[in-house]
Amino acid sequence: MKEEITPIEEGSVTTPRGFLASGVACGIKARGEMDLALVCSERSGRVVGLFTENRVAAAPVLLSRRHAALGVGRAVILNSGNANACTGATGMADATEMAERVASGIGCPTEEVFVCSTGRIGVPLPMGKVRKGIDQALGRLSPQGGSDAALGILTTDTYPKKMGLKVGLGEQEIFLGGIAKGAGMIDPHLATMLCVITTDADLSSEALQVAARRAVAESFNRISIDGDCSTNDTVLVLANGLARNPTVTLESGEFRLFQSALSLLMGRLARMIVEDGEGISKVVEILIEGASDEGDAERAARAVAHSLLVKCSWHGEDPNWGRLMAAIGYSGAAVDKDRVDIFYNGVQAVSRGERAGTAGRLLREVVRLPQFTILIDLGIGSGHFRLLTTDLTERYVRLNKGE
Questions:
Q1: Which residue from 152, 247, 191, 251 is spatially nearest to 50, judged by alpha carbons?
Q2: Which of 85, 108, 215, 256 could bridge across to 266 with cysteines, CB 3.0–4.6 Å?
Q3: How far is 7 from 97, CA to CA, in rounded Å?
């Protein structure tokens, strides 16, 4: 069988063999939208979890982090509309009850169930509604339930984010699928997002750990909308082994292909999150080249992506490269301004730290586009970094100024 990766655009977490899902409206959200999702494997398998680096972590993050350390997973229960963060002992008890109720319903240990929540911080979960919602979700589990699950985790997102992949792996086919949410409070380590990835591949624990961490580093940790880091960020990867392929290890030839597939899937979902960012009108790819090392390249990229002045100029369709120069100058990266070149979609704006002489209208034509790339070459070394970010709009402010 030819080794190839084929996207399944209508795929989801139920694309791989043996995975079921559902989504219901249980009343957490006042307007009756779907607000609870369940993803379940027909049998237990390996699991990897990656979580927010925010020290103010929500109860479901604390619970799921503890369960993930055991390395075995069967199901994920997710709710939107309420973060269950900063809710004290009650919040932890509620997250635990959610896991226990799912575990009882599918017949597995509580430690094999993971809990994710997203929404407003500091508000207790309406557990009466959540209990009924879990019971409904258990009753609606289906191989066709992936789309509903993708809807059940949305907050300010405008569309569901889901995808599947088919991979020719040796003599067999394996499948991967995923759902994600995220629109605001997006910044790495991780971003304001939830993501569940499923696969029917059989992998060793070490191979799954390495593949998941690399894929997250290349995708969800390279997007930024507003520079804020959430209390609830979670990425879970479940592998149930039902493809019955020879176990993929770090040493096996198939690992490289699985890594490529997982990175592709997470990369597509991460881009969907940025493109659906709260109130955004531009998606901007920042490429840093010629840095002294990759750490400096990352520092320069993040300084540009987080600069409010830069983001506002993009929204105003003003190619104000002076703001880019200022951002890299204070980024902490080694910078020699007389070596810096800057390009907008290949159109040079800065040469050796000074105006390149390009007609302003050509640069303005670039920043009028809904998506464009800015390449900043620091001209010092070989360090490079890529980051996907957005502009900052009046609509973003309206969405986030509170009730």
A1: 191
A2: 215
A3: 37
**For residue 402, what pLDDT is reported?**
63
Tokens of 398: 């309206």
401 labelled binding-site residue: no
Say yes or no: 228 and 203 in one domain. Answer: yes
Structure tokens given for 315:
């929204």
**H or E element that contains 398:** helix 394-400
Annotated binding residue 155: yes
37 and 144 assigned to the same domain: yes
Q: Residue 246 has which token pair?
A: 């020879």
Looking up tokens 């199901």 gives 75
| 255 backbone dihedrals φ, ψ, rounded to 5° | -60, -40
Tell me: pLDDT of 266 over 50. Answer: yes
CATH of the domain at 353: 3.10.20.340
| Separation of CA 190 from chain center | 7
pTM, two decimal places: 0.91
Write down which residue in 253, 275, 297 finishes a domain.
Answer: 275
**For residue 356, which of 372, 378, 345, 340 has the smallest C-alpha distance?**
340
Q: What is the CATH number of the domain that holds 178?
A: 3.60.70.12
Q: Is 294 annotated as a binding residue?
A: no
Which residues fall within 8 angstroms of residue 93, CB to CB, at 6 or more apart? none
Give the count of domains, the chain: 2
165 near 188, Cβ under 8 Å?
no
Q: Is 192 an annotated catalytic residue?
A: yes
Same domain, 313 and 372: yes
Task: Give per-residue pLDDT as tens, 79-91.
Answer: 999 999 999 999 9
- The SS3 of residue 225 is coil
Point out the catalytic residue in the list 52, 87, 192, 234.
Answer: 192
Q: Which domain holds residue 239?
A: 5-275
**Together in a domain, 19 and 148:** yes
Residue 1: CB atoms within 10 A of its CB come to 9
Does the annotation place 198 within a ligand binding site? Answer: no
Please say which residue of 275, 310, 332 terminates a domain: 275
